[in-house]
Specification:
This protein is elongated. The protein has one domain. The protein is mainly alpha-helical.
Length: 188
């Protein structure tokens, strides 16, 4: 006779006395907690990047842009034109990614986590490249064009932002519970 046969034949006595361990941890689901803070930050970044995109577009169509990008100009530097267009492309990408984050958040899509981390990493890489290029442009001028503190402040903000939010998205129970596909949806 096997152990499983013994278990099948043994009657269960006093089933009411079986205790199911309860956890004091709440089931975190939905839009709340730190996600609200992240969303507020994304909203402000969306507005800021959108404004910078418009400002840079206006600059790129102005006489000041020509002054920096024409070879005959005394302020000419071959890096100005690609840098300004790179910055506009980066800002447009960040605006588009912020809209995707909002869309996937509203839909409670599993892609929300991935697109959020993509946004954070892209923003950091964008800041690093921009800092390197602007530092190179600065070397070609005797007067200070950019506040060095301002350039590094933006990079430091991006690094801190990445250090906080990437681990949050990777370990958060709320993000996992809210943005994981449910088995019911996968079957339909």
């Amino acid at each position: 006779m096997s152990l499983s046969d013994d278990l099948e034949k043994t009657p269960v006595k006093n089933i009411e006395s079986i205790e199911i361990p309860k956890t004091n941890k709440p089931y975190l689901y939905g839009f709340g907690g730190w996600l609200i803070l992240f969303s507020i930050g994304i909203a402000f970044q969306f507005l800021g990047n959108f404004k910078l995109l418009i400002d840079n577009y206006e600059f790129a169509t102005s006489d000041d842009f020509l002054n920096l990008t024409q070879v005959s100009s005394e302020n000419y530097n071959s890096l100005w034109k690609p840098t300004i267009w790179f910055e506009m492309l980066g800002q447009a990408s960040l605006v588009a990614l912020a809209l995707l984050i909002a869309f996937f958040c509203i839909k409670k899509s599993p892609k929300f986590k991935t697109i959020s981390i993509t946004y954070i990493v892209f923003s950091l890489v964008f800041q690093v490249i921009l800092l390197l290029v602007l530092s190179k442009i600065q070397q070609d001028y005797t007067s200070e064009l950019f506040s060095e503190g301002e350039l590094y402040t933006d990079l430091i903000k991006s690094i801190i932002y990445s250090i906080i939010w990437i681990p949050y998205f990777l370990v958060s129970r709320r993000v996992k519970n809210t943005f994981t596909p449910s088995p019911e949806l996968e079957q339909s």
